[in-house]
Amino acid sequence: QVQLVESGGGMVQSGGSLRLSCTASGRTFSSGAMGWFRQVSGKEREFVAAISWTGGTIYYEDSVKGRFSISGENGNNRVYLQMNSLTPEDTAVYYCAATTANARTRRLREDSYGYWGQGTQVTVSS
After folding, report:
1. pLDDT tens track for 62-74
2. Rounded CA gap, 104 and 11, in Å?
3. Strand, coil or helix: what is 19?
4. b/e per residue, 26-49, with b = 16+ CB within 10 A?
5. Would the pLDDT of 38 be above 90?
6. Which of 46, 51, 60 is nearest to 22 (CA)?
7. How far apart are CA 83 and CA 70, in angstroms?
8. Within 13 Å and on the Cβ side, how many CA atoms surround 7?
9. How many angstroms separate the CA atoms of 92 and 90, rounded?
10. Which of 4-8, 15-19, 31-35 has the lowest mean pLDDT?
11. Residues contacting residue 62 through CB under 8 Å, at least 6 positions apart
12. Taking residues 95-112, what's their average pLDDT?
C-alpha cells in the first residue's frame, strides 16, 4: 500500500520561509513525478509544482516561480518544497502527490495523480 506523508507545515509571517517534505513508501517509483498541490477552503485544489522522479524535469505554477523550489531524493522516495517570500495568498493546505504519468500536460493535472498525502497546513500571516 502506497503512503505519502507530508511534514513541515506551520505558521509564518509574510516574507518568511517554510520547507515541506514528503516521503513515499510502499512502492518504488521508476517513472512519473511527484507533485505538490494546495487547496484553500471552499476552492478547488490547484497545482503548485512537480518534479520527475529522475529529477530532470521540474514544473511550477506561475505564481510561485522564483519563490518556491522543488527538489527530490529519488533513492529515498522523498520530495521537498522550499517556499520563500511567502504571502498570505499562499495560505492553504498543501498536499503531496505521486503520478506515473510522463507527459507534461498530465503531470500538471490533479486527476493524473493516484496517490495523495494527508495534507499539511501552511498559514501565512500579514
Report:
1. 999 999 999 998 7
2. 32
3. strand
4. eeebeebbbbbbbeeeeeebebbb
5. yes
6. 51
7. 9
8. 4
9. 6
10. 31-35
11. none
12. 92
Per-residue cell: 27: 512502492
In the chain, % of residues over pLDDT 90: 82
Q: For residue 2, what pLDDT band results from cuts at 50, 70 and 90?
A: confident
- Name residue, grid cell 513508501: 25
Percent of the chain with pLDDT over 70: 100
Helix (H) or strand (E) holding 22: strand 18-25
Q: What is the pLDDT of residue 68?
A: 98
Which residues, in sequence order, are bridge partners of residue 120? 94
Residues in the chain, total: 126
Report in angstroms the alpha-carbon separations of 124 from 14, 52, 68, 72, 110: 6, 28, 14, 24, 24
**C-alpha cell of residue 44:** 478547488
Q: What one-character-per-residue DSSP string does 30-82 give?
A: -SSEEEEEEE-TTS--EEEEEEETTS--EEE-GGGTTTEEEEEEGGGTEEEEE
* Pairing between β-strand 46-52 and β-strand 115-116 as defined by DSSP bridges: unpaired
